[in-house]
Fold this sequence. Notes:
By secondary structure, the protein is of the alpha+beta class.
Amino acid sequence: MFNAPSGKEIIKNIDIPENEHFMGLKYLDYNEDQVRKAFDDNRYEFLTRHDHYTVTGQLSLKGNVKNKEGKRLSIISAMNLQNFTTTVSYDPSNPPIENYDALGMIDAHEKTQSDFKGAKKTNKQDFASYIVEGMRNDRDIHLPVISGWQTDEVFCDTIFVVYHQVDVNTAYGCLYIPKKPIMQSDGQTQTAALFSVSQNKEAQELGALENLLVTLEIELNVDNVKAAQAFADRNGRGSKKNKNLVISMDTAAPLSKLRAQVLAKTIFDGRIANGRSGGTSVTATENIVDLSTIEQMMAYALTGPSPLKPEHFKHHHLDVLKPYADEFLSMLSTLFSSYWTHPTPPNDDTYRRLYVLGWPFALKGIALAYYYSKQDELEPIKKAMLERDLVRADMSAQESFSYRILYTEKDIKPLLSFKELTDRLSQINWIKHKKHWADITGYSLDVDGKKKTWKLKQFGEVVKTLNQNQMIQVTKVANKICGKTWKDLTSDTDESLS
Length: 498
């Protein structure tokens, strides 16, 4: 804590020179003898007051530096969680009560509050769980840079002390930034999660406040127009990420680990599209499904209707879930390997032209049917997976999970036995142009409202049924398989051409 030395003249903030190249930022070069002496003697006003945070890092201009109006100024800094929450001051999911209107931040503030009433609230909890898992050493933590901004209303009170001038546009030093909120232009959910972790007892005991390092970039001298444009540029440019490619690279995720453990020695081993290894089009036969579909199939099989998201699967769940995942994928391999032929024989049609088994809606429906055959065992597990808090403070996450499974009320009966399920699946006619599948999926129509058809090598002209991958189709398939009228699915009647 700095205190003004007695008997020495204090240098006012207003008298600190501004650096025109760095957008008029108050700028002190510590390498200059006069500046260093005054600084070491605590003669600067900002050193004697308590209305600034210190951020040590790299200050730089960004964008087109020749554009006086378009260039931007920011500092990037690595800091521990304690310093991060202190510096940012603004939990976007639980904003502090301040006069944001006076700071010119009221629009962003109100939008933030609105955002966290919806899906972002759940995402925040998932992100926080991910960080706590990392603090337990269950996984590595990979946190992207959080991009924030501070209003131009306080830029005149911001001061940079440069220790090393890297080049004309970059300098390393210490920024004295007013104790005002820092809004997020990118990383809002992550910021809310970090605030949540900072208040989590387990995370605190694991040393998160001191040992979790976060990278923060703060853009300075920003008004609402620039803030909105920054958000749009970060979130609206270019194509969205390839989901299958992300899944293939996320080897630390619990569901990815479970998938890797159970796929070996099944028909799916080496035949899953990962974003780079070919696709799953109607003519492609090497890959049966893509990574996103196989994970959704596993989620349906293990957690049933309204399947849990991948981030809700935790490492301490895997030992309990693995036998069921093994059984499900082994069942598919045993019953359906002969359908998924690759390469396609010369006089045959590809399996996706012929069978509903080539399409995600049917495979997910079978997965849901598997859950229904095991729901007396899997429903208590799912309920335990949904509980986030420890049963007791002295219990580990694994112990709490096992305790909840043991003591969850088990009053649910399966819709059918696993043997009944496999018997039914082995008798069903899976050819996709049959009437019982058209009744579930519907069919394509031409501009005149007539059924669309296509010609198959083995069957001639048939109705072109749909392959819509929607929850309602998945549910219809599962309910039909498990229901009293399941034998309708064994029919050999084609959907009529007219």
